[in-house]
Design a protein that fits this description.
- This protein is 15% helix and 35% strand.
- By secondary structure, the protein is of the alpha+beta class.
- The chain has one domain: 3-Layer(bba) Sandwich (YerB-like fold), CATH 3.50.90.
- The protein is globular and about 115 Å long.
- The termini are far apart.
Length: 348
């Protein structure tokens, strides 16, 4: 019985082992499950664009903070012995005004691009404080009648005057022109010396480009602008469709910069202004209002200019009373006396 029972137990154990081996053999030959598909992980390549802002005197888009410096204005000579002037091609805004002898001078303003040199600079005139004051910053000139210098120094603009101690190293006479038409200014150095002066406020409303400006969208098609300041001086601007800019002409000849290229503007603003005699000096009257034409992108829109006070900017409204938008880019302002003339050639 004992042997029989032992044999029975051995047989039972042997059978269990066989079942285990069989099961193991089956497990070894069973196919492995197919792997789950790999799901790709999405990685965004979007980069947040750097912040931008509008250049205050051009309306062009620039990196934020890239123009955190003052404007520099200058009383620039327009006598034929002063031409070609230095730096006019990079101006943001230029005002042309009547002075003695029936000729003109400029108040030119730079902020988007400060040239290494600008000029030649000449003496201040009685209307220049009204032009320069809204921009703050710096104004460079070669002196003038003390009563006019006093007016300029009473504005919120830093006066950089030739012959003074603070300009001894930044104003100089070039050998390439004859005196008094040869005083140049180291503009980048002057601006760097006054890093505490803030950037100017935006003066005018701008569209993104010439085609979306008020004049291009709502004005009359005009191919040329002709103006006369006096019997001694006249000029014109002709529209170049390829560049969408206006090319400058003085007294029948192309007006060239110091590199031999014709001066051009994205916007040409013509204002009819009163001019009075200030003890023998013509004085343009800029506080008040008057007739205006703004030309951009081949179109010219008629309207009104107004200026509430010396430190307030010029405002431009159309004949319906709506504000006029200029095209992004540089602007020339022609302060044509009411005794002068303005004519426009319709685009054919």
């Amino acid at each position: 019985m004992v042997r029989h029972g032992g044999f029975a137990r051995a047989a039972a154990l042997s059978g269990i082992a066989a079942l285990i081996l069989t099961a193991a053999g089956c497990a070894a030959t069973a196919p492995e499950p197919a792997p789950s598909p790999t799901v790709p992980v999405y990685v965004s390549t979007y980069e947040t664009p750097a912040p931008t802002e509008l250049a205050p005197l051009r309306g062009t888009t620039v990196p934020a903070g890239s123009l955190a410096h003052s404007a520099i204005a200058a009383k620039v000579d327009n006598h034929w012995d002063a031409r070609p002037q230095v730096g006019l091609e990079s101006t943001d805004i230029v005002y042309e005004e009547l002075v003695e002898g029936g000729i003109t001078r400029y108040v030119a303003i730079w902020q988007s691009t400060i040239p290494e040199l600008l000029g030649p600079v000449r003496s201040i005139r009685p209307m220049d404080p009204d032009i320069a004051a809204p921009y703050g910053g710096i104004i460079a000139y070669s002196g003038g009648q003390q009563r006019f210098v006093n007016l300029m120094q009473a504005t919120p603009v830093y006066n950089a005057i030739h012959g003074m101690g603070d300009t001894a190293n930044t104003f100089f006479r070039t050998d390439s022109k004859r005196a008094p038409h040869n005083v140049l200014v180291k503009a980048t150095e002057v601006v760097a010396q006054h890093a505490d002066i803030p950037a100017p406020a935006q003066q005018w409303a701008y569209s993104l480009d010439a085609a979306s400006s008020s004049a291009a969208k709502e004005g009359a098609p005009v191919s040329a602008i002709h103006y006369r300041f006096s019997n001694m001086f006249d000029g014109s601007w002709t529209y170049d469709p390829d560049s969408q800019t206006y090319l400058r002409i003085q007294q029948g000849s192309a007006d060239l910069d110091s590199s031999g290229n014709q001066l051009r503007a994205s916007n040409v603003v013509v204002l009819r202004v009163g001019v009075v005699d200030d003890q023998g000096v013509p004085k343009t009257l800029l506080e008040g209002s008057g007739e205006a034409w703004i030309s951009t992108g081949g179109g010219t829109i008629h309207g009104t200019w107004s200026k509430a006070s010396q430190t307030e900017p010029l405002q431009f409204t159309d004949d319906r009373g709506f504000g006029i938008r200029l095209g992004a880019g540089n602007t020339w302002v022609e302060l044509v006396p009411t005794r002068g003339s303005v004519e426009f050639t319709a685009a054919g």
